Amino acid sequence: METITIRDEFIKLGQAMKLAGLVESGVEAKIEIQEGFVKVNGEVELQRGKKIYPGDIIEFDGQQVKVEN
Question: In a 3-state reduction of DSSP, which class is residue 9?
Fold first, then answer.
């Protein structure tokens, strides 16, 4: 499982996906999220602006990324 490190209290889902290299752009993140292809902590997430906190796990395209601080 990959990890990304954030400095702030949270990061938005679209930004986290870009930081982790899961998508190339915010537009791509928006499309993948709206299509229901992204899970946060095992649940499908449809909001690009969802706040992601340390300990959360993002799943996309067979990859898992854990957020840490």
Answer: coil
d(CA 60, CA 37): 6
Burial 42-55 (b: 16+ CB within 10 A, else e): eeebeebebebeee
Give the number of residues written for the chain.
69
First to last CA, the chain: 16
Tens of each residue's pLDDT in the chain, 69 residues: 999 999 999 999 999 999 999 999 999 999 999 999 999 999 999 999 999 999 999 999 999 999 999
Give the pTM: 0.94
The pair of three-digit structure tokens given for residue 68, joined into one six-digit string: 């840490």
What amino acid occupies position 20? A
